[in-house]
Amino acid sequence: MSFTADPRVDAYIDALPDWQQTTCREVRQLVHAADRDVTETIKRTKQPYFVLQGNICALLATKDHVNIFLYDGDKALLAESLGHIQEASTAIISAITPTG
What we know:
Blueprint: H1 7-14, H2 18-34, E1 39-43, E2 47-51, E3 55-61, E4 66-70, H3 75-96
Antiparallel strand pairs: 1-2, 2-3, 3-4
Helix pairs in contact: 2-3
């Protein structure tokens, strides 16, 4: 899937530990695959957001996990895509979350 990457989002992801980079890149791919018109940006100074007629989701990496914030958008436009993103991101997180 080809999309226009925001270099600030690249920088945010590149600064993370490997396992968080993997999670964020997978979610990023899923969001862009859901709709080719999704754009990405940085809001709140450093947090990656994915936008299509409003916020779709955002990423926030913390010490031991990655938060994926899902927003209520135009339900008719985004309900199916968000469902796929949420299911896939849950599976990804479960598969790569370090156990300790």
